[in-house]
Specification:
Oligomer: heterotrimer
Shape of chain B: globular
Strand order of the largest sheet of chain B: 1-2
Strand content of chain B: under 5%
Chains: A alpha/beta (384), B mainly alpha (285), C mainly alpha (296)
Order of helices and strands of chain B: HHHHHEHHHHEHHHH
Helix content of chain C: over 70%
Helix content of chain B: over 70%
Structural class of chain B: mainly alpha
Largest sheet of chain C: 2 strands, antiparallel
Strand order of the largest sheet of chain C: 1-2
Number of helices of chain B: 13
Radius of gyration of chain B: 19 Å
Number of helices of chain C: 11
Radius of gyration of chain C: 19 Å
Strand content of chain C: under 5%
Distance between the termini of chain B: 52 Å
Structural class of chain C: mainly alpha
Distance between the termini of chain C: 40 Å
Number of strands of chain C: 2
Largest interface: B-C, 43 and 46 residues
Largest sheet of chain B: 2 strands, antiparallel
């Protein structure tokens, strides 16, 4: 029943598109984000970035004459809400593709439904399980436009181990946060395989606000460097309290240390000697235009998730072009063909085997006395 | 269609979860602030059995609910001895403790990243049937000797005790029954959503269920169920308001609490529609 | 060891301010006021707003801190008064069961948090640096200036609060109403006024805690969820007792830090639960040992 409905719908759409009847039609893109829950800062940033991209396309006369419409639904950062919201986007709003959230848990929860409905979800959920099933095959409908947590953690690990020469690692991470956990495991695996050791592994959970006891244990573990793959607000606490107890280690972190992190800390002595990998370089020309447009519209600087929102729209529209039409299956087919698309965060090529981006390098940054210094793009030997 | 189906299914699951809260809070007047933790126990136990040992769904569901009841026993035994004031704290602490255990046993439970690949065994008809069966069980319990004793207990614990009601045992039995039902809601959720994460089961979910029970009318099972339907689908109708929908939801809840101090239904039950007749007849005779 | 006790105490100091704001309302209306978390988030952002709109460029350092704390305390007091009017006044008129107050407070907490989410959640924000960020070495351990200020201001606020409660007519009114509303109103005390004053005090404390949280942890809408720690501390401390709440908060801080050292932070909530349970079974009156009439 359901399948037949879908079939009829897509058949009708293909006919309409084919016959040129809906030339001045509308392409509805769903945007599934957390607008009111614990990751609302990220969700709102993605949404704003996406709105910007859609505005620009429409201002330029739309996508091949079709107006692009972005329908944003709130997940409250909650799986149950996300299931309802996703179904609503498809059934009620007739979205042909969905911009996924930067949160892996939601990605994991909607993957089975997206596969069944043949609606592509393009997201920045970095847990590799969102895009690749346990048997090694790609999740048919899930696409990632950012390095996976494995690629990402390996880049950072390689940089710390092979470039900076650190051998003894301490880690501090949020055990109740899927992002932090997924950034930890590949990191540990990478360094332990290549002669590094983890000398201290400390955790905290969401409601903890004081890490000094953990940091103190790390202090006595005699590590070379501290790995902190956590959310921005936690990183602020970490560096402040590390300074307080006199823990003077260099730190490596994920892209949550990107601006405005150092400004949030507000103390150049605390936000010091921190390395992290960002998706893009601030100096790259393709960013400037988007950043200026964002500033003009929202009156503040975008955080990096906003660029990802922008790129999700770019990639989906490219996929409509490559797939030959704006239906779920066509977009899915088109996404597998996405190659060398210039996004704000880099040149995006999606692997048809894993639905993950190929060869997206990361830009290493160092925070030195509260100032961001770009080190340049870095690709580990093992990734080349 | 799938949109409506998913709303109905998840509402049904919430209804079953709310039944647990209704029993603990509505019947015995204890304040359960960690009811969602039993949902986590039921969901995780059954899902892990199915995933790791290939246990068939029906058996996994049974064991899952039993495990929730068992954990209810563990929490309930000391809790019923405590003053009412502390029960909210202890159940809250239990909820947090369960989440931390789930996060910590990452090899078994998948930790914060969640448990994936749970087979889909639950659809709308099963959930609807489950709602009916559970509702029947809870209604029977409410009208049984135990239910009446519970009412006495909630109104005046001291008086109930002096009437010879074994208050602690009664609280414990109700608590166990409630945990099993909430655990079953967890089973349904796990095999419907096909994905579990510990963070989902935190105290805010338990708080939401409490809000539902009170908006419906603390003494009324009918009220609790109707308000479960209204309050879980309300945010969906408010989607047009995007970010404002939670605010509208809160305002509606506040209005009801302020202007219908006994909830929408007070202590009215739908069964009165057909029971009233018999009382009238009895009066005439 | 000594250092860990200090960590625990300074963590407990943050909890205690939250717990006291909580206990004040419990004292008088006998319910756990979860809207306090919302007040903390709300005032933290209000302080930030005042900083960028009013104070920035005019004052700095400690003066800026004072200005922001004062603003936040005033906003907190006003917010709490509004909360009382909207969420609880009618319930009191209806003689609603205490449990409804609780539901109302949770809803109000969610409401406040979402108002912030709508207006301020596309980015993270933070206060400026108020104090020198140097450390003070004392007794073989180190404190940050912010820590010391937190400790001083919280104890100052608590002392003022205790003075008001035990040395003023208003405080007498609060204590009377907390004992028995009806008798109090027969004695010519206006319970509405007393309840309002209590909420204002609690809100002001919430405002101060909000600024501390924002100063130490940066601003995000869920900042106020720390309220659960205040809830735990105030209940363990003895329901509604102010000193009990402070002791409960300090103990909670020390126990948490000690458990992190022994079992690691992952198992900490599970251990806190067991300890809490045992404690309540052994000493059902809480730390302060005040017997409160059993309500909900």
């Amino acid at each position: 029943m359901r399948n037949r409905g879908l079939l009829l719908k897509s058949l009708a759409l293909t006919l309409l598109v084919g016959s040129g009847l809906v030339s001045a039609g509308e392409i509805v893109l769903g945007n599934l984000q957390d607008l009111s829950g614990p990751t609302s800062v990220l969700g709102n940033a993605v949404t704003r970035g996406a709105e910007l991209a859609v505005d620009r396309v429409n201002a330029a006369g739309g996508f091949k004459g079709d107006k692009v419409k972005l329908v944003t639904v709130d997940t409250k950062g909650n799986v149950q809400e996300a299931i309802k919201a996703f179904n609503r986007l498809i059934d009620h709003d007739n979205a042909v593709a969905v911009l996924g959230p930067p949160v892996s848990n939601i990605g994991l929860a909607i993957a089975p439904m997206a596969n069944e409905k043949k609606i592509a979800v393009v997201g920045s959920f970095i847990d590799p399980r969102v895009t690749v099933q346990e048997n090694g095959e790609a999740q048919p409908s899930m696409f990632l436009i950012q390095p996976t947590s494995t690629q990402y953690a390996e880049i950072i690990a390689s940089y710390a181990l092979e470039k900076l020469g650190y051998k003894k690692f301490a880690v501090l991470y949020d055990q109740s946060n899927a992002f932090a956990v997924s950034m930890l495991k590949p990191f540990k695996a990478y360094i332990e395989k290549r002669g590094g050791t983890v000398v201290a592994e400390e955790t905290y959970t969401k409601t903890d606000k004081d890490y000094r006891a953990q940091l103190n244990k790390i202090k006595s573990a005699n590590a070379d460097v501290l790995y902190i793959p956590n959310y921005t607000q936690d990183l602020v606490i970490t560096v402040k309290q590390a300074k307080q107890i006199g823990l003077n280690l260099p730190m490596v972190s994920g892209l949550d240390a990107a601006p405005p992190f150092a400004t949030l800390v507000g103390d150049p002595e605390a936000a010091n000697n921190i390395y992290f990998a960002n998706n893009f370089s601030d100096k790259e020309p393709q960013l400037t235009e988007v950043r200026n447009a964002y500033r003009a519209k929202f009156n503040e600087d975008p955080i990096n998730k906003a660029y990802l929102g922008y790129d999700k729209v770019t990639v989906i529209l490219k996929a409509i072009e490559l797939g030959g039409g704006a239906t779920g299956p066509q977009i899915i087919a088109g996404l597998s063909k996405v190659k060398d698309v210039q996004g704000t965060t880099g040149v995006i090529t999606i692997s048809p085997k894993t639905h993950q981006p190929l060869g997206l390098s990361m830009v290493m940054y160092k925070i030195d006395a509260g100032k961001y210094q770009e080190i340049g793009r870095y690709v580990p030997e093992s990734h080349k | 269609m799938d949109y409506i189906y998913s709303i109905l299914t998840l509402t049904g699951i919430t209804m079953i979860g709310v039944m647990g809260t209704y029993m603990v809070t509505g019947l015995t007047g204890q304040f359960s602030f960690g009811q969602a933790a039993f949902m986590a126990v039921g969901g995780y136990v059954s899902a892990m059995l199915a995933l790791k040992y290939g246990v068939p769904f029906a058996l996994a569901a049974l064991i899952g609910s039993a495990a929730a009841a068992l954990s209810g026993l563990l929490v309930g035994m000391p809790t019923v001895r405590l003053r009412r004031d502390y029960i909210s704290l202890v159940t809250f602490g239990f909820g947090e403790a369960i989440i931390s255990v789930l996060n910590n046993s990452a090899q078994l439970t998948g930790g914060a990243e969640g448990l994936v690949g749970i087979p889909k065994r639950v659809d709308l008809p099963l959930v609807m049937a489950s709602v009916v069966v559970c509702l029947f069980l809870v209604a029977c319990y409410k009208n049984s000797k135990y239910g009446r004793q519970c009412l006495a207990l909630r109104t005046d614990e001291l008086a109930a005790r002096s009437m010879g009601i074994d208050v602690n045992r009664l609280k414990l039995v109700t608590f166990l029954f409630a945990s099993a039902i909430t655990g079953y809601a967890g089973v349904l959720y796990a095999f419907y959503a096909q994905y579990l994460e510990p963070g989902y089961f935190n105290w805010t979910v338990s708080a939401e269920w409490l809000i539902i029970v009170f908006v419906g009318g603390i003494n009324s099972l009918t009220g609790a169920m109707v308000s479960a339907v209204i309050l879980t689908s309300l945010p969906e109708f408010l989607r047009f308001a995007s970010a404002w929908r939670i605010i509208i939801y809160c305002i509606i809840v506040l209005l009801i609490i302020n202007f219908r101090p006994n909830g929408i239904f007070g202590d009215w039950e739908i069964s009165r529609l057909w029971k009233k007749k018999t009382t009238v007849k009895g009066g005439q005779a | 060891m000594l250092q860990n006790i200090f960590f625990g105490l300074s963590l407990g100091a943050v909890y205690s301010l939250v717990a006291v704001g909580f206990a004040l309302v419990f004292n008088i209306l006998k319910f756990s006021n979860f809207s306090h978390g919302g007040v903390m988030s709300f005032t933290a952002y209000a302080g930030y707003l005042a900083y960028i709109m009013l104070f920035d460029g005019h004052i700095s350092g400690s003066w800026m801190f004072l200005a922001i704390v004062t603003t936040a305390a005033v906003v907190g007091a006003l917010t709490a008064i509004v909360i009382e009017r909207v969420g609880f006044r009618r319930l009191r008129r209806n003689n609603a069961p205490v449990i409804y107050y609780f539901i109302s407070s949770i809803t109000l907490g969610i409401l406040l948090e979402n108002i912030i989410t709508i207006f301020a959640s596309s980015n993270f924000y933070s206060y400026p640096l108020f104090f020198s960020s140097n450390n003070i070495a004392l007794f073989g351990t180190t404190f940050s200036v912010a820590d010391v200020v937190t400790l001083l201001v919280s104890s100052g606020a608590l002392i003022i609060l205790l003075l008001v409660l035990y040395r003023s007519k208003l405080g007498l009114g609060v204590r009377t109403v907390s004992f028995d509303v009806n008798t109090a109103s027969l004695m010519g005390i206006d319970p509405d006024l007393v309840v309002m004053a209590t909420f204002a005090m609690s809100g002001a404390l919430g405002g101060i805690s909000g600024v501390f949280l924002g100063m130490n942890y940066s601003l995000y809408p869920q900042l106020g969820q720390l309220v659960v720690k205040g809830f735990v501390a105030s209940v363990i401390g003895g329901l509604g007792s102010i000193t009990g709440a402070v002791i409960g908060a300090l103990l909670l801080g020390i126990v948490e830090v000690a458990l992190i050292g022994v079992v690691g932070s992952g198992w900490m909530p599970a251990c806190v639960f067991v300890i809490m349970l045992v404690f309540l079974l052994v000493r059902p009156r809480g730390i302060a040992g005040v017997i409160v009439q059993e309500k909900a």
